[in-house]
Amino acid sequence: MTVVRNHLRTSLTHFKASANFTVGKELIEVPATTLDQPILLFKNNPISKRRKQKKQETTKTPDLGHWNLRDVEFAETPSQLGKLHMLALSKCFDPTGTTSATTSGLLQQAYTSFRRKLEDHGISIGNGTTAEESKNNVPSGAEGAVKHLFNNIHQSTKDCSIILIPEKDYQLYAKWKRHFDFSGRQVLFATGSKFFEKGSQDFMSNLALKVNMKFGGVSHHLNADTLDKLLGKKLNIKNNTIVLGADIGHCGTGGKEGSPSVACVVGSVDNRFMSYPGSMRLQRGGQEVSIKPILCR
Q1: Residue 121 shares a structural domain with residue 167
Q2: Closest CA to 150 of 178, 123, 126, 109
Q3: Nearest CA to 160 among 219, 77, 95?
Q4: Number of domains in the chain
Q5: How far apart, in whole angstroms, are the C-alpha atoms of residue 264 and residue 282?
Q6: Where does a domain end: 214, 249, 268?
Q7: Which domain holds residue 256?
Q8: Residue 247 · residue 291 · CB < 8 Å
């Protein structure tokens, strides 16, 4: 859409610069088709490891592009993970403030619930450290607490840490997300109160999905019949096909001033079309720069 729009802008500018031109009133027709909702295939493991009597669903059909992750194990999970750590920043469970004893109890509940949720989705990870800001040698202040996590707790690239924050903190997130990513250590930020609100199970499933992806896992595959309808049954067609996606994101209304626009291009790297290494470039706020079309054979 962006490429077409920018092309039209360029064409109109050219027309305006020329004398005696006309523009037709007919709309351009582009052939299209409506695709059926895809069937998503999860790991074919009918029995839950933790709740052995509960059947696990192996396929799901999204509803208008949305689907839930209840009662499924991810299609591919990392084989060797280290430990799960969780750091609770001040007031992460209640922005108005909670007692230290209450925070400790909620931290343990959140940690235990999330480890169980990871296990339900087929992710096995070791028991790590829970820590609280301003307690047990953890410094006060978000900056100091996160530094303590980085320097003293989360030291293996196989470990995963969840930092519980009271609310969105752009400065903290931007700085430390970049710091951890460049160090090769996987850390996620989450609002602490979300672990206890209505819909917490779905929230933790989405968080587990991010953990799985960060360590190279795949949440689901497209059902074989779905791929056959799209591409045909010949293996060489799938092996010689690449799926590309491109988008430009602008900060929404109410976002932090100075937030950049981001252009992103992703492309599939296998014949199951579930792995998409991407490339991102910053753009000036509020502007769109067209992405050159790519010809793939």
Answers
A1: yes
A2: 178
A3: 77
A4: 2
A5: 9
A6: 214
A7: 2-32+234-283
A8: no
> What is the residue-level pLDDT of the chain in tens, covering all 297 positions?
343 344 444 444 444 555 567 778 888 888 887 877 778 889 876 554 555 545 566 888 877 667 778 888 999 999 889 999 999 999 898 866 555 558 889 999 999 999 999 999 999 999 999 999 999 899 999 999 999 999 999 989 999 999 999 887 777 887 888 888 888 899 999 999 999 999 999 999 999 999 999 998 999 888 788 788 878 787 788 888 888 888 888 877 777 777 777 778 889 888 888 888 776 666 665 666 655 544 444
Under a CB-based contact definition with an 8 Å cutoff, are residues 279 and 269 in contact? no
Q: Are residues 207 and 85 in the same domain?
A: yes
Distances (CA, A) of 293 to 3, 48, 184, 244, 290: 8, 45, 32, 10, 9
Burial of 162 (0-12, 13-18, 19+ CB in 10 A): buried
How many beta carbons lie within 10 A of that of residue 255, not counting itself? 11
Strands 59-60 and 83-88: unpaired
Tokens of 52: 């052995």
pTM of the model: 0.76
Closest CA to 231 of 35, 14, 9, 6: 35
Contact indicator for 221, 196 with CB cutoff of 8 Å: no
Residue 184 counted as domain residue: yes
Domain ends where: 179, 214, 249?
214
270 phi, psi to nearest 5 deg: -145, 180
